[in-house]
Amino acid sequence: MVGKACGRFPPDATDSSGFTVFGNQREGCFSMSGSGFLSLHGVHKRFPLKDGELHVLEDISLDIRQGEFVSIVGGSGCGKSTLLRLLVGLEEASGGSLRLDGTPIHGTDPARGIVFQDHRLYPWLTVEDNVLLALANSPLDKAERLARVHAHLELVGLRHFAKAWPAQLSGGMSQRVAIARGLVNRPKVLLLDEPFGALDALTRAQLQDELARIWLTEGITTVLVTHDVDEAVLLGDRVVVMEPRPGRIRRIIPVDLPHPRRRDHPRLAELRSDILQDFTRRQAVA
Amino acid sequence: MSTLQASDPFRTLPARPWPTFARILRRAGAGGAGLLLPVLLLVVWQVAVERHWVSAQILPPPSRVLETFGELWASGDLWFQLSISLQRVLVGSAIGGALGLLLGLAMGLSRRVEAYLLPLFQAISQVPVLGWIPLLMMLVGIDETLKYLVIAKAVLVPLTINTFSGIRNIPPSYLEVARVYRFGLLLRLRRVILPAALPSIFTGVRFALTKGWIALVTVELLASSEGIGYLMVDGRQMFQLDLVIVAMLVIGLVGLVLDQGLALIETRLRRWQRQAF
Amino acid sequence: MSEATRKRPDLRGWVVPAALLALWWLATAQEWVDTRLVASPAAVLEAAWQAAVSGELWRGLAASLGRNLSGFALGSLAGLAFGGLLGLSRLAERLVGPTFHALKQIALFAWIPLLSAWFGFGEPAKVAFIALAVFYPVALNSFEGIRSTRRELLEVARVLGLTPTQRLLRLVLPSAAPAIFTGLHLGLIYAWLATLGAEYFFSAAPGIGNTMIDGREHFEMDQVIYGLLVVGAVGLVLNRLAAWIEARALAWRDGGR
């Protein structure tokens, strides 16, 4: 079933990054035997208000291929974070279907990892224990867990900080730990909710490069929510542009450049101004 | 962002402000759940005594307590004892409050005064009021002076601390503004220091009065022939626990009124502050 | 405590106490006061020394600390359980919370006559009173601490699929720990206060508070003052001890420094 789902959705011809997805899967990476194909169909989300309802998301349909990196951009109130919360299972959709490898998404699951904007590390646990916490209910034995935690701390470049307290880390370092925690379960999908929004510009750029590198090595399906158009086009295979009230997809823009990308590539600048123009035009109309 | 799944056991854990009396009432009125337990307890209590499961001596029934309260109120005895206690608190608090305010101001404004007095102050406040009572009894006897002093000490400590820390926690930027405009001491006090430290001082006042009331009860229990605390001692000695419980209720009620009344004034003050800026 | 006083040892703090001590000494040495009533500093030292040598001081201290600690243990366990229940269960809070908050308004010492009627005047009454003194701050702070668990961190627990037990042990309790420690710390202070009170109000038995009451009755001020000093010193030690334990247990707050 899962295999078929992948077969039905071969990499988009225009998407030159497809090779990395299949070429770089590490052994054992997808021990869950799934692949990480996300399918959203007619998703609605409404919140009850005192008088009536608030339509946060309306009719969102989107397929995200295995190993694809999709960026979602939009202004505040377009429901992009809510969409991510539906995907991770912290909220339930009011209508429509969300599926991962054909299985409906209900509640949270280790197959879907998330990194929040605020790192949300537990301050009373060391870096190592924070990442270990994600494996609290895994079938692995203690040694295997530790080995895996250390491999992931290595991946985010924090091998030497395993015993540090979160209070001793900078914002960027904390966010790296959060990424390690999001990945240590070997999820099929990594969800990122404005993960670098609270960081300074230099740290942000550095972590963007790191994320691109990690994604290339892990080959994991990744959904990044951001309000930073530069970030969206730099990292995404496709950029989903959303608009508010009610939140819906305005358009989807493929970024036809191979990874890893150079920040100063003229094509990125083109795409960025295209998207930004879209925003300003809409605002002018509104 | 705010709704979570309903099945979660620790679902609703927002940080909640202190339950005020009004909120307790509102909640009790709204759900009735909060009233359920006390009412149930009272009923069981009453029934237990009436059926002689427990002796009325050990646990006077609520009806008796209510009756005693009515009698004490009608005879004016309750009000008489209470007025004596309140007057003691008033005098003691005035003395301790004035001293505490002065001491806190002096230590807050001058690093030198702080260096000389703070260690001694801390050492003295370390020993609870109760520890001072035997010594004070020997020095001043067990008359009104003792009560005033004990209450004053209880009031002095929190007020000093809050005034002192209120001044010390004024953001340096405020004081820098005052320096830029070369305000004199009086102007600085009136325009910067007192307004900025006022919320903390007022919290100190509220806390101090509660402490003063508790100290009064303590000292009246220990050495007094009048007052609400004495009423309890009297009731206990004659094994009239209904009297004891009435006194307990009155003590709780007065404490509550003091605290909530001052809390109300405090929020008023803060609202005025917000509007002013 | 300001920065300045903490950084360098500041001797100015000793000036006023030294002056007061000198005044006291002078007043008794020059007989400005009746020395039969007001003890001299030397007499206080002498009384303390005698009590220490004869072992009376240690017996009293041991008795006081014994009931202090048993009351503290009892009250803090009950407070933790009660506060935990109220914190974890909305239903329990709705049912019991208002009663708890109402009873809290009654001044601690106002319970003494009733407690004495129920438990008598002996050790059980004293320990019960100390336990009651500890119960309130511990229960209150445990409740508040558990209720202030951050929603964001709870979401992480959900995303990581932690079981309710894991949530309790890894999230709720550690996150409530600072408040719980504050409660225990306050409880320790109240317990010492209540120990004194218990010895004043209930029947006479060895104890440091009893030493003071005794001293007053026999008009031996030296005994009262050394008792006062011991009470202060024990309070200080308990306070420091609590702060030290708290700092060790909550090392994560400031990054383990």
TrEMBL record, chain B:
<dbReference type="InterPro" id="IPR000515">
    <property type="entry name" value="MetI-like"/>
</dbReference>
<protein>
    <submittedName>
        <fullName>ABC transporter inner-membrane protein</fullName>
    </submittedName>
</protein>
<dbReference type="GO" id="GO:0005886">
    <property type="term" value="C:plasma membrane"/>
</dbReference>
<feature type="transmembrane region" description="Helical">
    <location>
        <begin position="148"/>
        <end position="171"/>
    </location>
</feature>
<dbReference type="GO" id="GO:0042918">
    <property type="term" value="P:alkanesulfonate transmembrane transport"/>
</dbReference>
<feature type="transmembrane region" description="Helical">
    <location>
        <begin position="192"/>
        <end position="223"/>
    </location>
</feature>
<dbReference type="InterPro" id="IPR035906">
    <property type="entry name" value="MetI-like_sf"/>
</dbReference>
<feature type="transmembrane region" description="Helical">
    <location>
        <begin position="243"/>
        <end position="265"/>
    </location>
</feature>
<comment type="similarity">
    <text>Belongs to the binding-protein-dependent transport system permease family.</text>
</comment>
<keyword id="KW-0472">Membrane</keyword>
<dbReference type="Pfam" id="PF00528">
    <property type="entry name" value="BPD_transp_1"/>
</dbReference>
<keyword id="KW-0812">Transmembrane</keyword>
<feature type="transmembrane region" description="Helical">
    <location>
        <begin position="89"/>
        <end position="109"/>
    </location>
</feature>
<keyword id="KW-0813">Transport</keyword>
<feature type="transmembrane region" description="Helical">
    <location>
        <begin position="28"/>
        <end position="48"/>
    </location>
</feature>
<feature type="domain" description="ABC transmembrane type-1">
    <location>
        <begin position="82"/>
        <end position="262"/>
    </location>
</feature>
<keyword id="KW-1133">Transmembrane helix</keyword>
<keyword id="KW-1003">Cell membrane</keyword>
<feature type="transmembrane region" description="Helical">
    <location>
        <begin position="116"/>
        <end position="142"/>
    </location>
</feature>
UniProtKB/TrEMBL annotation, chain C:
<feature type="transmembrane region" description="Helical">
    <location>
        <begin position="168"/>
        <end position="193"/>
    </location>
</feature>
<feature type="transmembrane region" description="Helical">
    <location>
        <begin position="224"/>
        <end position="243"/>
    </location>
</feature>
<keyword id="KW-0812">Transmembrane</keyword>
<keyword id="KW-1133">Transmembrane helix</keyword>
<feature type="transmembrane region" description="Helical">
    <location>
        <begin position="69"/>
        <end position="88"/>
    </location>
</feature>
<dbReference type="GO" id="GO:0055085">
    <property type="term" value="P:transmembrane transport"/>
</dbReference>
<feature type="transmembrane region" description="Helical">
    <location>
        <begin position="127"/>
        <end position="147"/>
    </location>
</feature>
<feature type="domain" description="ABC transmembrane type-1">
    <location>
        <begin position="61"/>
        <end position="242"/>
    </location>
</feature>
<keyword id="KW-0472">Membrane</keyword>
<dbReference type="GO" id="GO:0005886">
    <property type="term" value="C:plasma membrane"/>
</dbReference>
<feature type="transmembrane region" description="Helical">
    <location>
        <begin position="100"/>
        <end position="121"/>
    </location>
</feature>
<comment type="similarity">
    <text>Belongs to the binding-protein-dependent transport system permease family.</text>
</comment>
<dbReference type="Pfam" id="PF00528">
    <property type="entry name" value="BPD_transp_1"/>
</dbReference>
<keyword id="KW-0813">Transport</keyword>
<protein>
    <submittedName>
        <fullName>ABC transporter inner-membrane protein</fullName>
    </submittedName>
</protein>
<dbReference type="InterPro" id="IPR000515">
    <property type="entry name" value="MetI-like"/>
</dbReference>
<keyword id="KW-1003">Cell membrane</keyword>
<dbReference type="InterPro" id="IPR035906">
    <property type="entry name" value="MetI-like_sf"/>
</dbReference>
